[in-house]
Amino acid sequence: MKTLTIGLTQFAAVEDPATNLDSAERLAREAAAKGAQVICLQEMCSTLYFCRSEDPALFRYAEAIPGNTTARFGAIAKELGVVIVLPLFEKRATGLYHNTAAVLDADGTCLG
After folding, report:
1. pLDDT tens string 1-42
2. Structural domain that includes position 38
3. Pairing of strands 83-93, 6-8
4. Kind of pairing, strands 83-93 and 38-40?
5. Which of 91, 73, 93 is nearest to 83 (CA)?
6. Does residue 53 have a pLDDT over 80?
């Protein structure tokens, strides 16, 4: 029987997305160093969690998938040889937003 090690991350998010993404990267690297093969980052890892209510002022945090964040974590997944589940606030089209997750394969590609 094969064993699959899954790492789950959690940190106290702040208002600055860059700081949150740096924290997510640090924890992903720690999880990989501890043997995780699949690393699941926390929900909406680049922002504070704000999905309890709809506030158009927060739509500025939405990102395209693929985009800069998926490229960054795809490169990390490839470097570490792990799969990363990357939850983000996605801007799919003008006025169409989702609390979603991108799955980044160990070769760095975005599976969806």
Report:
1. 899 999 999 999 999 999 999 999 999 999 999 999 999 999
2. 6-104
3. unpaired
4. parallel
5. 73
6. no
- Distance from the first to the final alpha carbon of the chain: 28
Give residue 21's Cα distance to chain centre.
8
Residue 111 lies in a domain: no
34, 44, 77 from 100: Cα distances, Å:
26, 8, 18
- Which CATH number do you get for residue 87? 3.60.110.10
Q: What count of residues does the chain have?
A: 112
Separation CA 93–CA 28 (nearest Å): 29
Q: What pLDDT shows up at residue 59? A: 85
CB 77, CB 83: distance < 8 Å: yes
Residue 37 has a pLDDT of 99
How many structural domains are present in the chain? 1
pTM: 0.93
For residue 51, give both structure tokens: 């999905």
